[in-house]
Write a structure and sequence with these properties.
about 270 residues; alpha/beta; 2 domains; two-stranded antiparallel sheet; about 35% helix; metal-binding; DNA-directed DNA polymerase
Length: about 270
């Protein structure tokens, strides 16, 4: 994957003379400048925002599926009992959005001002995953066009893909922002969690725009941005510079350098 990102970046073209238009080898594609072909200009793709946070040891989870293109939000709470202590989500959202707008006057990267909320409290995680699957399918049936799935979760994306198969039908962008582990260590954890969920959603547009700017600078697809973009970008630019000057790359698949076994001999 690193070699592909290094070679073709986020915008590429098929080289002359390639016969097949169905599948390509890496050598069949050439990187082109985003000055010639802009990458993800504003409003070129819709997105759905998925949020999940959980207690470190208790069965306390909060899921939020923000289907922004259809102005619908699904909030699913998992607890040991089906007691709904959630605040009025419409009022909470309006208050938080207004406060953010007053603090950042003229901010055009805020989600829409009118959303409908569906809130449920369940005790069965499998049922919650089925409900999320159902709502993603309903969104697909709306045929709103190309949509990416922005994921901010304490669960690994691979686990989410297994639990919610429709995840695999959207290009995914991972947002590497986490709440503190102790967030739900309070009696009114549902209210605290609801406020955190809404605030993260209100920040999601700005986060995605920042990530898009980083991707244009690094010339990598949005879905391939890692947790540490600075380190990744340094590796990527250095690798491109070396190959441009006819160096052969020996890349390590881990955070430590691959010394060809010499580190074992030395020890």
């Amino acid at each position: 994957m690193f070699r592909a990102l290094m070679h073709i970046g986020c915008v590429s073209k098929v080289v002359r003379g390639v016969q097949s238009m169905d599948k390509f080898n890496l050598d069949d594609l050439d990187m082109i400048s985003i000055a010639r072909q802009p990458y993800l200009p504003k409003d070129s793709i819709k997105h759905v925002y998925f949020y999940h946070h959980r207690h470190a040891s208790k069965q306390q989870h909060m899921f939020g599926l923000f289907l922004t293109p259809i102005k619908k939000v699904v909030v699913l709470v998992v607890d040991t009992v089906r007691t709904n202590l959630m605040p009025n989500m419409v009022n909470l959202y309006n208050v938080e959005r207004t406060a953010k707008l007053e603090k950042n006057a003229g901010d055009d990267l805020l989600p829409p001002d009118e959303l409908t909320f569906e809130v449920r409290v369940e005790t069965d995680m499998n049922l919650v995953f089925k409900l999320l699957q159902k709502h993603l399918q309903s969104y697909k049936d709306e045929k709103k066009g190309p949509t990416l799935l922005a994921v901010q979760s304490t669960m690994d994306i691979s686990d989410l893909q297994k639990a919610i198969p429709h995840f695999n039908e959207f290009p995914q962008v991972q947002i590497y922002v986490q709440d503190i582990e102790e967030l739900y260590n309070v009696m009114d954890w549902q209210k605290i969690g609801a406020k955190a969920l809404v605030r993260h959603y209100l920040n999601s547009e700005r986060v995605l725009e920042l990530m898009s700017e980083q991707c244009r600078y690094f010339h990598v697809p949005l879905g391939n941005m890692p947790e540490d973009p600075a380190l990744f970008g340094a590796d990527l630019f250095y690798a491109r510079h070396l190959t441009k000057h006819n160096h052969v790359l020996w890349c390590s698949s881990t955070d430590k350098p691959d010394l060809g076994g010499s580190q074992e001999t030395d020890s």
